[in-house]
């Protein structure tokens, strides 16, 4: 394939246009996915599409731990008043553990090897596309 | 050496190079610096850019698919294969189009490719998990793709100019 791009050695103004388009796409997504407001935060834990547990983080008064031995890579979830994290996981990537604590609605922890999702939602608006208009 | 044999050898060498680059990149994961699932420099994309510029779209596609298949044998699993293939194919398609645009340099092409790769990976994750949850990771990944795309773009400019395979086969 003969392409003028292959012969250039310096960036062109059009490269900046591409970069700006990527930034614009990211900004639009951030706007669409912005967390819903509200003091009530519910954590929903789903494993392979099935909801395995649900916690009202704002109503919790003492820390709890949830161990999921039935997951492909067993893991332990730590739940504290107002926040939740994956404390330990046997999965190879450890991305879920590195995500750390989450506390605001709209945030997620995903453990792909386990197909596990912990998602936080506010009480009023459950789905983010309910607010985009 | 016959033309087809030369083409085969060239594609095989580039496939091996792409595999080596993605394994090498896995040894020094960017996610240690910046914990974002799916974040990588995308060095193997250099080979795709090179193949698109100096060989052909068909060879670039063959090298990409061979790299993903062999890569999953080396240490991944089926899910990793789905991810690298979706991301890689989307990046290849976007870069092949971007290379036809008159005004871009390889910086712009690589950034578009990196952004497409991340989008493809997130789409694959959404399909695997059956929820839109992974979409939350896309904006930061897109912003990172500006940097990773520019770095691999700069490297691919060096590669494409320093290693000009003769167009004759």
Unreliable stretches covering 5 or more consecutive residues of chain B: none
Going by helix content, strand content and strand pairing, the class of chain A is: alpha+beta
Q: What is the level 1 CATH name of chain B?
A: Mainly Alpha
Report the principal-axis shape of chain B: globular
Strand content bin of chain B: under 5%
The share of residues in helices of chain A is 10-25%
Q: So, the CATH homologous superfamily of the domain at 41-126 in chain A?
A: N-utilization substance G protein NusG, insert domain
Structural class computed from helices and strand pairing of chain B: mainly alpha
What is the helix/strand order of chain B?
Answer: HHHHHH
In CATH, the architecture of the domain at 41-126 in chain A is Sandwich
Q: Termini of chain B, distance in Å?
A: 9 Å
β-sheet strand percentage of chain A? 25-35%
CATH architecture of chain B: Orthogonal Bundle
Radius of gyration of chain A using CA atoms only:
20 Å
The quaternary structure here is: heterodimer
Largest beta-sheet details of chain B: none
Return the CATH class of the domain at 41-126 in chain A.
Mainly Beta
* Count of folded domains of chain B: 1
Major β-sheet annotation of chain A? 4 strands, antiparallel
Mean pLDDT of chain A: 85
* CATH fold topology of chain B: Arp2/3 complex 21 kDa subunit ARPC3
């Amino acid at each position: 394939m003969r392409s003028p791009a292959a012969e250039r050695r310096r960036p062109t103004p059009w490269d900046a246009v591409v970069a700006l388009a990527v930034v614009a796409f990211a900004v639009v997504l951030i706007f669409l996915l912005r967390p819903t407001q509200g003091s009530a935060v519910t954590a929903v834990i789903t494993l392979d599409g099935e909801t395995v547990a649900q916690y009202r983080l704002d109503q919790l008064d003492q820390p709890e731990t949830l161990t999921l031995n039935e997951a492909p890579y067993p893991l332990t979830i730590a739940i504290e008043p107002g926040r939740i994290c994956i404390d330990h996981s046997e999965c190879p990537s450890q991305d879920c553990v590195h995500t750390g604590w989450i506390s605001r609605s709209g945030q997620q922890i995903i453990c792909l090897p386990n197909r596990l999702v912990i998602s936080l939602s506010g009480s009023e608006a459950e789905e983010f596309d309910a607010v985009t208009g | 050496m016959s033309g087809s044999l030369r083409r085969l050898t060239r594609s095989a060498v580039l496939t091996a190079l792409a595999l080596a680059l993605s394994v090498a990149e896995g040894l020094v994961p960017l996610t240690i610096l910046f914990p974002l699932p799916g974040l990588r420099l995308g060095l193997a994309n250099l080979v795709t850019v090179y193949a698109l510029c100096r060989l052909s779209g068909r060879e670039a596609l063959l090298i990409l698919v061979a790299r993903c298949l062999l890569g999953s044998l080396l240490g991944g699993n089926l899910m990793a294969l789905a991810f690298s293939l979706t991301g890689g194919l989307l990046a290849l398609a976007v870069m092949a189009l971007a290379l036809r645009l008159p005004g871009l340099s390889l910086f712009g092409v690589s950034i578009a490719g990196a952004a497409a790769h991340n989008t493809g990976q997130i789409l694959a994750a959404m399909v695997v998990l059956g929820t839109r949850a992974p979409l939350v990771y896309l904006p930061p990944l897109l912003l990172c793709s500006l940097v990773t795309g520019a770095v691999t773009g700069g490297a691919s400019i060096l590669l494409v100019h320093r290693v000009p395979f003769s167009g004759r086969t």
